[in-house]
Amino acid sequence: MENLSAVENTVFSSEKTLLITEKIKNDLLASMKWLKYFAVLGVISMVFMVILGLVFLVVDMPSNGIPSAALGTLYIILAGVYYYPISKTFAQIKNTREALTFDSQMSLEEASSNYYSVLRYLGILSITLLCLYVIVFVGAIICAVLANIIA
User: Fold this and answer.
1) 92-133 pLDDT per residue, tens
2) Residue 109 included in any domain
3) Does residue 132 lie within any of the structural domains?
4) What is the DSSP letter of 59?
């Protein structure tokens, strides 16, 4: 009876642990370098979009009938759309490196949360854009049909 009690305490009090080997650490650290590269490219793209947006807002350039102020505003909005996933990506990089360097479970949990946030944001954004594409495509077909009926 005494042995059964000891086994029950061991089973119910032990937590499941995940073993992170040196190979896993090295692979994760190497992937964080690539992730940082892509995040920096995102920041550079964001800066170019803001600069181009400001140029379109300030200078009135003809662009196939679309007002340059509208294009400038669109570029600045797109730069704003980029900001959230890029900031979460940098946080993920920081937390992953911290977790692997100091064996910090809390930092690894935060890195995982940032990773999930980026993927959720991009998933929602892609669904939204796909819906927008469908709406524009259907709208274009309706306009073409109406134009043929009226003409």
Assistant:
1) 999 999 999 998 999 999 999 999 999 999 999 999 999 999
2) yes
3) yes
4) S
